[in-house]
Amino acid sequence: MTYPTRYTVVGAGHGGKAMAAHLALMGKEVTLYNRTPAHVEVVAKRKGIELESFLDGPHGFGRIKRTTSNIKEALHNAQVVMLVVPSSAHADLAKIMAPHLEDSQIILLNPGRTCGAIEFDMVLRQEKCAAKVVVAEAETFIYAARSDGPAQARIFRIKEAVPLAALPATQTHLVLEAIEDVYPQFIDGVNVLNTGLNNMGAIFHPALTILNAGRIESTHGDFEFYIDGVTPSVATVLEALDRERVTVASALGIRARNAMEWLELAYNVSGANLYEAIHNQSGYYGIKAPSTLYHRYIFEDIPMSLLPIASLGMAYGISVHAMDSIIRLACIIHKTDYNRRGRTVEKLGIKNLSVGEITRYVNEGVLEQ
């Protein structure tokens, strides 16, 4: 087949710059979009991004074809649109992108978190988007990456396998085939309920941050997040959250991977228990904790990752007491109501769907209203 050559990366943060540079180094024509011109000013002047990486990983100067803060310009003639932004921005981006999308474009959320593709699809329908596009989501972000400067990025690790699913699932193979020349690591994620309910960030990030709240505030994050922060008791809480997630998935007919299985799939590590497996993951060493509690691990991962899992659980009669405890603590710490701001079954328009109806929607694209 003929592979796409024109990619647009939406978002110029840590991950967006790493992905844009890597795609460019792989010979793709890359447009980089960021809504704030100042954030991409240096990239525009240099016409590219300097990428550094681990050992034999990708490195060099990735030449960016176009850098813009105009969404119409960014989307024009793109074949694959990679969204690398906080999931809290997905709905707003869907709204501003809707009038400018073109037929046959692939839009991939990197990652979708939980119900990202469902939310994106809902907004496109609300905006009466005329273009026939394919919306898909990755289960997790393929890179562990950081921005080293205004036109510099560093990749610490590339995950070995990342499940991906389109909405509907009948189009997943089209997405996988389109990007397999640059990202052979992507594999069939079954459907977007599977990718969303296998969102391990929902389990690891918020709870680990909240349970280390005192240490984060007293040290400003000067400790190793996954190593010092994951004590045996913290790991026990993570295991309880993980059991609830797997049970919610089971109620929807999904056999979700547990945290141990996910660590083995993504990083090829194992252990006698979750505490041991996390400490066996060499990629976690050296990663510092957030310097503040006002961090995306709470303000993004609570409303866009953990809350929708809990909401699905409550909709289908599953006890989610551990999840509810973490969500309530986040609301107290941030003095906000994430239950009103986040992705719930009500806001996603799927509250009244039976298990069979929601399964048909994600698999076949048929939405019963």
Task: Provide a descriptive summary of the structure in words.
The chain is an alpha/beta fold and 369 residues long. It folds into two domains: 6-193, Rossmann fold, CATH 3.40.50; 201-362, N-(1-d-carboxylethyl)-l-norvaline Dehydrogenase, domain 2, CATH 1.10.1040. It contains 17 helices and twelve strands. The strands form two sheets. The chain has an eight-stranded mixed β-sheet with strand order 5-2-1-6-7-8-11-12, with helices on both faces. α5 links the parallel β7 and β8. α4 (90-97) runs parallel beside α5 and α14 packs antiparallel against α15. The longest helix is centred in the middle third of the chain and has 20 residues, at 232-251. The protein starts with 5 loop residues before the first strand and ends in a 5-residue tail after the last helix.
Short note summarizing the structure:
By secondary structure, the chain is an alpha/beta fold.
**Segments where pLDDT lies below 50 for 5+ residues?**
none
The number of E-state strands comes to 12
Kindly provide the name of the CATH class of the largest domain.
Alpha Beta
SSE series: EHEHEEEHEHEHEEEEHEHHHHHHHHHHH
CATH architecture of the largest domain: 3-Layer(aba) Sandwich
Average pLDDT number? 96
Percentage of residues assigned to helices: 40-55%
Which structural class matches the secondary elements?
alpha/beta
In spatial order, strands of the major sheet run: 5-2-1-6-7-8-11-12
Approximately how much beta-strand content do the residues carry? 15-25%
What is the end-to-end distance? Answer: 38 Å
**Domains counted in the coordinates: how many?**
2
The CATH homologous superfamily of the largest domain is termed NAD(P)-binding Rossmann-like Domain
Give the CATH topology of the largest domain: Rossmann fold
What Rg is obtained from the alpha carbons, in whole angstroms?
Answer: 20 Å
Morphology call? globular
Instruction: Count the DSSP helices.
Output: 17
- What about the largest sheet? 8 strands, mixed
